[in-house]
Amino acid sequence: MRAIWFRRFWLAQAHWIAQWKWFFASLVCGIAALLLSWVFKSSTNRALVPLVCLVFIVIVAIRYGARSGIIGSILATIVFCFVLLPPLGSLRVRDQTERANVVWMLLGGISLSYLLSSDDDDDKDGIG
Asked: How many independent structural domains does the chain possess?
């Protein structure tokens, strides 16, 4: 009796995790952006940090699909604007180079998520 209950509980948890794994993968992008912001906060090369985070976004998109890569790139952009780039606590970015790199990370994250995603809906997309 106890083994049946545990098996049902485990299958229910696995089903829930399988449906929400794209969201957890998006949170990985946000956490990576937060950690990179914390490590490189006082660095002179902080303008390049969003482009480094693009690697994490691409890896997440390849493994978990386009939706997780797109939401992860939006989340990472918000984290960088609020935590790393001055003025802190605002979506505005004062320096033009830093602003351009954040925009390139956002646009590159979205487009590379679409190009490199692992979504298996190729027969439903209407191409070919």
From this structure: 1
